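batch job 7 of whatever, protein = Peptide methionine sulfoxide reductase MsrA
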Amino acid sequence: MNKGNQALATFAGGCFWCMVKPFDEQPGIYHVVSGYTGGTKENPTYEEVCGEVTGHYEAVQIIFDPEVFPYEEIVKLYWQQIDPTDPGGQFYDRGPSYQTAIFYHDEQQRQLAEESKRKLEESGLFSKPIATKILPAKTFYPAEIYHQGYYKKNPERYQAYHKGSGREAFIRQHWGENK
């Protein structure tokens, strides 16, 4: 299979289970991997990251074709999956490993992410300041296999978590039904 152009995008948006599906269903997205980034420990485990001893965020890394699904659109979709004003985590999940961040892989991604954040701040959609950090990409460590594609493997548990955490209602309130 010819995958054409490939680029990476890396986002922390709280629980990585909830961050895979929205990207996985888009044209030009080749693969979405749940994992850990931003910290100091090599090859961290889920327990270590959730235990807040590694400095890592739960994150997703997306392999995509920028000619089919441009980075600007990926960032726009990212904003629509999170509460960008929450500096303490996301929805039910609290702590540094669940904070939001855009990890840029080059200067163009940094500029596009900063511009997108500025536009979101100016939009008036949120009454609180945007807390999402924009950081240089660091080594990304894929999470354990049972975390990969969680929404496909455990659809009932995924949907219950997506709804029960408050994420689903927040997205609907701020972005509408189809996000």
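notes: The mean pLDDT is 94.
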